[in-house]
Amino acid sequence: MTHSYFIPRKRFGQHFLHDPNVIRHIVDVIAPAKNQHIVEIGPGLGALTKHVLPIVQCLEAIELDRDVIPELQTACKDLGKLTIHQADALRFDFAQLTKKKADLRLIGNLPYNISTPLIFHLIKYAALIKDMHFMLQKEVVERMAAEPGDDAYGRLSIMVQYYCQVHYLFTVKPGAFKPPPKVDSAIVALLPYGELPYKAHDEILFADIVREAFNHRRKVLRNSLRPFIDNDLWPKLSVSPEQRAEELSVQDYVNITNTLRA
Fold it and tell me: Does the pLDDT of residue 98 top 80, yes or no?
């Protein structure tokens, strides 16, 4: 099986990157260096791997599609030590790769059909991750980077920004892929905080409050957060019960959580 005859599979959300200028630009922003612990999610046919592996010498990859793995191994032969984990990244335990804080550098062209749940999975391991550089659907990157009041601002924005700095780097057009997706893509850099700027004393409660608020985003907070906040508690909070979910910052949601816990 050769690259030219490998048929991308819809069920894996495969769109193989092939534009050399885009690949070069991505490698430049990742800025890999020798001996860094880089893990590529969904390497596919190795478009990025072939450029990063010779620099770092050792690279780990997580690939779900068994049939693409021989292609990847052939493409990267003699470029360095490539360790492939045949696994679903959504269920993969990234803690098995390292015990060091801020050790992992994650990269990848993520399948768009699982990108949001995968990001939620990865932020569980934020303490182990130095940075993440991903290709995602442009709309998803816009949601991650959105500010309060933006149309794209939502649960994903808050949960990612709680753990990470978010940098929208650049847009990638469909023609950079085979087959071309029906939407624009974008490169995002996620940099987990060494120390959280706003720390929720109960992160499960924090996540529950954010979820509930945005499940009813058309309602004012007095109604959407009724399961959590009694009317007599509102005067103690720094936000108005007449505001809506998309008007509150990460800090506001942390303050609500910590007031409830106190």
Answer: yes
pLDDT for residue 1: 32
Q: Which run of H or of E encompasses 228?
A: none
Answer yes or no: are the C-beta atoms of 19 and 174 closer than 8 Å: no
Shared domain for 210 and 185, answered yes or no, is no
In three-state secondary structure terms, 132 is: strand
What value does the CA radius of gyration of the chain take, rounded to a whole number of Å?
A: 20
**Tens digits of residue pLDDT in 6-25:** 454 444 445 678 899 999 99
Domain range enclosing 236: 203-261
For the chain, the domain total comes to 2
- Sheet of strand 37-41, all strands in order from the earlier edge strand to the far edge: 81-86, 58-63, 37-41, 104-109, 129-137, 185-192, 164-172
212 is written with which tokens?
């509930």
